[in-house]
Amino acid sequence: MAISLSSGVRQSLQSLQSTASAAQLAQSRLATGKRVSSAIDNPVNFFTAQNLNGRADAFGGLLDGMSNTIQTIKAASNGLDGITKLVKSMQSTVKQALSDAATNKPSKTGSLAMATAAEVTATGKDMQSIALGKALGGNATADAATSSSAGDLGIDTSTNSSIGLSIVSGNTTYTASFSATSTLRDVVNEINKSGLANASVDSSGKLSIAGSGSSTLQVGIGSGADDAAAKTDAAAGTLNAKIGLAVADATTGVTASGNSSVRTGLVQQFSDLRTQLDGLAKDAGFNGINLLSGDKLSVVFNEKTGGSQSKMDIQGQKISSDNLSIMDASSGTASGKYDFQNDTDLKAADAALTNALSTLNSISSSLGANLSVVQTRQDFSKALIDTLKAGADNLVNADTNEEGANLLALQTRQSLAQTALSLSAQADQSVLKLF
User: CB under 8 Å to 208, separation ≥6 — which residues?
Assistant: First the structure.
């Protein structure tokens, strides 16, 4: 049976139902924080926000890869710092060896006394002064010093007017030329000037020569029609006998004898540092990737694929003592090793270590640039994620202040609607009083 309601009651009831429905919607928005909870509420906003959140999630996943890349680069950078310190320690070891006054420098004292007791009596000078003051050239026979003449060493300059000097130490050659009137003192001064050897005349009038380093020392005297020819003849040492040296002293050379105990002790120190360098490079990896072992690292920066994908490939370099051209050390001649008893080898080791430091600095700079790029993209991705999520929230999130105010107003309206409904019902009841 249908029940008929008066127009006043029906209108009050409809108002109450509408208010209750609006209040329920406001309560739902306050509870969920969403004004668009499904595609039914607002299809455009719902699906747009879904796409924005999906892209934000994709970038969130890429952040893990960027973070791992940063840690991998930092691990390699820390490894380079450690290797650089080891190389500097190796360089200090080499410099310590070079600064040692090695006992194995080649030295030779001439067999000829270039002054005699008779000359001492005649001149009133000591043998050292007499020998140093003698001229190099003259007749083929040496002339003794007298009270009026300094004498000469007997190098025949009647045909070959130029006298040459040749000094070879390791890979370095020094030459000079003299005239017939030049003295033995001039020769001694020129040898000392070369930097390859030190020369002096002792109290017995004999010439002594010692190498500045430990490399084989070749010293020769010769003569020729001109300076060039004299220097060539000096390299063969044809006139070495005139100063008490043998021809072999210019060709085969004078070799060092004995080893420096200090340098011998530094050999093991250098080798240990070299071993630690190789070990440190192998341990500079992160999560299975070691940029100092030549591994390649790829990092993706966006959510796209194919040609639209943004990524960066970081190619590592294999770092080892061999790749840095740092050979091992030995206390003697050995293939592929630095002879710590030889100054030339020590200088070569120092040069190799200097080049190694330059290489390490270059690699470190490259890693630093890559790290800066990845960190910049990481910061950008974090900011973009915040932007995407904020944009999505603006499309679907409810304004809790507004919804709270709406609910309060609806509750007030609901109370008024209930009162109006009650009044309408009372008006209908007043009709019954007529019967």
Answer: 107, 108, 109, 110, 199, 200, 201, 202
